[in-house]
Amino acid sequence: MHYLITGHTGFKGAWLAMWLTQAGHEVSGLSLDPVPGALFEKANVTSLLKHDLRGDIRDLATVQAALSTTQPDVVFHLAAQPLVRESYQDPRGTIETNVIGTMNLLTAVSQTPSIKAHVVITTDKVYKNIDQIWGYREIDPLGGDDPYSASKAMADILTQSWVKSFGGPPTAIARAGNVIGGGDVCKDRLLPDLITAYSKGRTPELRFPNAVRPWQHVLDCLNGYITLSNELLEGRGQGEWNFGPDTDSFVPVGQVASLVADMYGISNQVWTLASDQQPHEANLLSLDARKAELSLNWHNKLNFQEAVRWTVEWHQQLSQGDDAFALASDQISLFGEM
Ligand SMILES: NC(=O)c1ccc[n+]([C@@H]2O[C@H](COP(=O)([O-])OP(=O)(O)OC[C@H]3O[C@@H](n4cnc5c(N)ncnc54)[C@H](O)[C@@H]3O)[C@@H](O)[C@H]2O)c1
Fold first, then answer.
1. Which residues line ligand 1 (CB under 6 A)?
2. Is the pTM of this model over 0.90?
3. Fewest 10 Å CB contacts: which of 9, 76, 298, 320?
4. In angstroms, what is the span from residue 292 Cα to ligand 1's centroid?
5. DSSP labels for 180-247?
6. Structural domain total, the chain
7. Domain span at residue 131?
8. What CATH number corresponds to the domain at position 20?
9. Residue 22, domain member (yes or no)
């Protein structure tokens, strides 16, 4: 099977490319260049790929050319501007990449007969956030108070309406929350910030220490995406799917910091409160993943502590000189055996 991943130079995309090639598949990618220090570069993911294409998904001709060159069987659309804070600084760019970019993908996919399955990646932040303590279900209303959330909700609705209006290959939408794992270098994400601070002996600043987030290992999330694509290839699974962690993984940011600090042997003054004024971020977000559990037989394999441990150990071993690709490959194998 030949997979095209948009966003393959990013955090999830690099892990997905390694997983799929390790499983014996051909993989191509379309993205911008990786950011400095990205897992994609550290693990030399380019060497695994059939086509490593660089281009901007905001340009329809670029996306059409990529699909025409690669002629994939399956498309995973991950490319996005994925950060809430960045979306306040560049709302237009965020909307253009996340909404127009998705429309360009949908257009080009519908013009490429080789494609048998298309999985569009959105997020837990697509749901209209009413600060409920129970998880959001696929049938709940979508919304978005910040530009990033709005852009992903728009991409989600656009995909649903596109399929209803124009058909195309079997298409599904995957919604997942915060994921953690080795090699994430995105700014403003908690685990990379904590690991950088503790490994340098600094005390990290937290913006929202009491905010409860669902924490999930990237491999559990990708396992959902891959399970969904397999379902599409079997002629089932169209529609929207949540792939969130179990409820014991809904943990406040400050508690995550304490666990990571513990792994670095730090016990006092684990964090300080950030003093600068912060833009609004949703306070509580959780996903109800029972639809995927019951219908796809998908389940999280790593609990909260294991997900954090796998992430921190990955970075600790990397800093001791271990090879990034070998570390990822070992975790993918271990995960597959669970
Ligand atoms: N990481 C998380 O916690 C999380 C949570 C929920 C949803 N998501 C979603 O998962 C997907 C992947 O996120 P990630 O964490 O790997 O992000 P990332 O920032 O690591 O990677 C983003 C990828 O998109 C590509 N990209 C960005 N703008 C582009 C453009 N204009 N044209 C072409 N490519 C472009 C980048 O080059 C990169 O390959 C995104 O759709 C994101 O919204 C991520």
1. 7-13, 31-32, 56-58, 78-82, 97, 101, 121, 123, 176-179, 186
2. yes
3. 320
4. 22
5. E-TT---TT-HHHHHHHHHHTTPPPEES-TT-EEE-EEHHHHHHHHHHHHHHHHTT---EEEE-PPPG
6. 1
7. 2-177+217-244+284-304
8. 3.40.50.720
9. yes
